[in-house]
Specification:
eight-stranded mixed sheet, three-stranded antiparallel sheet
Length: about 500
Amino acid sequence: ARAGRSVLVLEARDRLGGAAVTEEFAPGFRVSSCAHLLFHLHPKVVRDLKLAKHGLSLANPDLTTTVLGPDGHALHFQDGQLWGQVLGNDPVAYQALRQRLHKFAGVLTPLLTQVPPRLGSGAAADSQALLKIGWLLRKLGKRDMQEFLRIVAMNVADLVEDEITSPLLQGALCWDALLGCHMGPRSPGSVLTLLYRLTGQVEGQQGVTALPAGGMGTVTAAMTRAATAAGAVTRCRAPVARVRIEGERAVGVTLASGEDISAPVVVSNADPKRTFLQLVGPRHLDGGFVRRVHHLRLRGNMSKLHLALDGAPEFTGLMPREAAGRLLICPGVDYLENAFNHAKYGEVSARPAMEITLPSLQDSSLAPTGKHVLSALVAYTPYDLKAGWARTADQFADYLVTQLEAYAPGLSKLVRAKELLSPADLERRFGLFGGHWHHGELAIDQLFMLRPVPGAAQYNTPVDGLYLCGAGAHPGGGVMGAAGLNAARRILDLEAT
């Protein structure tokens, strides 16, 4: 829009923001419905869109992470410092591992805002991009480059067990590698997803997690104000039924209402399967390309639990202020791997792993005075649950409260209302195919120049005039904005008038 193009944003729901929204789930209780913390929003997006000017602020720019142990002990870490149940040489070993991983993540960081090169094209731009990747690796120095290449395809369990003694710290590092993915700590390539997580920055700090004031909806509300200030027009309750194709080129869209909207360029923030298999349709695409899209892995494995509470819960072994950070229930590698084992066979885990926040402890706007909200990401809860989510969701929500009560005695007596969003609910509410919020696994074969698939990895697609700009495109999922940034540049370059 700032470049002078006429922009219309179409949103299926009654509010903008996709899966980064703040919504009321019980009278007076508001919560970030899907994404609930900020760790990946790209600094260039923040600067270019002037998001602070448009209302984005942080209730806490660097949350303490606390790993809850089943015995009432806990381990805390922040800014590379450990305290609580610390074992042996872990403080020194953790500092060394953290510094090394941050350095390796720094190799990936410049690639986030780069259009991925095409392999074997022979084009000068693609050759230069590949050389740039090689130079980033070479700048590490011989020893670090060898170490990077050694670990990047490893499973994260092997890495942390080699370096760290504490099962609680091992579990926390594995959790950050696996969040939102259909992988366990012993899945190959999970070190790469940990490095991907560590590419994130908040206010210049690498690898931290922030709580936005007002919930995640304030992030997308600031983006909306930036867009409308630049001249973009937005329409809600306008679900797109199909992309209109004429002469092998996208010429607009047809809404579910039957209304046709013409446009020389169509940009899809939907996931690749929905975009190509439903909105475009296989008949407009090459058979080989359709097969690649069909085989994209989008198996949602996370649910979201929201509790409206009549008071602040008390977690065993924690001071009240310590409950205001990020709380993890993942007390070890084996705990996570066993939880993942259930998901492989279409079952929920008997001992689920969770990431818990009580955002109202730092942001009173989210609950009535004296009341609180609890928000928890729950793994592993497969989209294709054998028993079916319609029959299981309420019972599982009650079970999760019971599991939480083992760490916060008396919690169930505080629960005024609860909401569980299963992967099936995330698909229905937010349009996430398979309930997968990354729009595709963050795996070696589905990242960078392979994301989402060859033939659509540079934001333009086999259909002229149709582009991708969402989490299914490079660099991937998370509330990042980099895919949109890259796509906008690519569109302005290829569709110059």
